[in-house]
Amino acid sequence: MSSSEITRDVVIIGGGIIGGSIAWELARRGLHPLVLDRQEAGREASWAAAGMLQTAPDNADAIPLVPLARASLALYPQFVEDVEADSGRDVGLRRTGAMEIFFSSDAARELSTFIALNHGLGLPAEALSLDDALEMEPALSPHAQAAAFLGEECALDSRALTDAVLAAAVARGAVVLAGVEAESLIVVGASKDAGARVEGVVAAAHRFTADQVVLAAGAFSSRLESARRYAPTRPVRGQMVALLSSAPPIQRVLRSARGYIVPRDDARPQRLVAGSTLENAGYEKRVTSEGVARVLEAAQELVPDLADAEILETWCGLRPDTPDHLPILGPTDLEGLTIATGHFRNGILLAPITAKLIADWITERRASFDWEIFSPLRFASPES
Ligand SMILES: Cc1cc2nc3c(=O)[nH]c(=O)nc-3n(C[C@H](O)[C@H](O)[C@H](O)COP(=O)(O)OP(=O)(O)OC[C@H]3O[C@@H](n4cnc5c(N)ncnc54)[C@H](O)[C@@H]3O)c2cc1C
Question: Which of 44, 162, 202 for a ligand 1 pocket mutation test, highest count of atoms within 8 Å of Cβ?
Answer without folding.
Answer: 44
